[in-house]
Amino acid sequence: MIPFRKMHGLGNDFIVVDARPAPLPLSPTRIAALSDRHRGIGCDQFITLERPEAGADVFMRIHNPDGSEAEACGNATRCVAWLLMAETGRDHVVVRTVRGDLPCERLAGGTIRADMGPPSLAWQEVPLAEAMDTTHLPIDLGAVADPAACSMGNPHATFFVETLEGLDWQALGPLAEHHPLLPQRANIGFAEVVSPEHIRLAIWERGAGPTLACGSGACATLVNAHRRGLAGRRARIDLPGGPLELEWRLSDNHVLMGGPVATAFLGQFDPDTFPA
Ligand SMILES: N[C@H](CCC[C@H](N)C(=O)O)C(=O)O
After folding, report:
1. Which domains, and CATH codes, for the chain?
2. Where is the site labelled Could be important to modulate the pK values of the two catalytic cysteine residues (predicted)?
């Protein structure tokens, strides 16, 4: 049996397994089966903790429920940071991902804040299929158009809308996720700018669909809103699951993202029950 912990940040939920003591028999197929909400445990992302090389407290591998691997996950970074803080008693830990080291800290009130690093703004780095200005993509889906794109390690495109009220973003999300301009697909944000310090955001995640919150998506939204002149460098971003506090720091170009984390339950599963 393999023990797991079910965690979430604002309802963006994760199965977390610990492969630090020994590697676990988890193929993408098995991860997809475990991530199924009806036939498995269910989650937005499947998180595997691995032993890091020197310089970080843990290596975090991220899979989507379709079995694909993601380069970044802000809410899981905060959940895993909390776990490491509970293990070590420290208020600062470093979570390593395939895209680099993410320092995290515990703030007053239990908020966990992750330094998600600098955004990538060049078209090759999002990536987009061809050279263009990443603040305006020629994507027109009728009800929404003209998104901005950036990478937080993983690809994001943000549509700015007058209001989320009545917008069928769950139908538009998959069209944008699979648009030919986005060869690695992308996480798709629908952002209603309430004021320069306050944004409402709905997210259609690559490989996962609609989620209650997306940390890297909130980072990308602040970056894209700021580049479009719609927001300052700090904002509260309200997602369906609740608010995240964002800052795109001027001094070092890093994006900081803070919010709550929670454990829902602990459990165990028999890997042989799921296809290998
Ligand atoms: N929920 C995550 C993002 C998952 C991104 C994943 N869907 C991808 O394919 O990049 C977050 O809090 O940042």
Report:
1. 2-115+260-273 (3.10.310.10), 123-253 (3.10.310.10)
2. 156, 205
Tokens of 148: 């901005």
For residue 214, indicate whether it is catalytic: yes
What ipTM did this prediction achieve? 0.99
φ, ψ for residue 219 (rounded to 5)? -60, -50
Binding site membership of 151 for ligand 1 (Cβ less than 6 Å): no
| Buried/exposed code over 6-31 (b: 16+ C-beta within 10 A; e: otherwise) | bbbbbbbbbbbbbbeeeeeebeeebb
Residues 7-58: tens digit of each pLDDT: 999 999 999 999 999 999 999 999 999 999 999 999 999 999 999 999 999 9
Residue with tokens 């990478």: 151
Mean pLDDT of the chain: 98
**pTM of the full structure:** 0.98
Q: Quick check: helix, strand or coil at residue 220?
A: helix
Q: Is the CB of 97 under 6 A from ligand 1?
A: no
Active-site hit among 73, 79, 104, 150: 73
- Tell me, using a 6 A CB cutoff, whether residue 12 lines ligand 1: yes
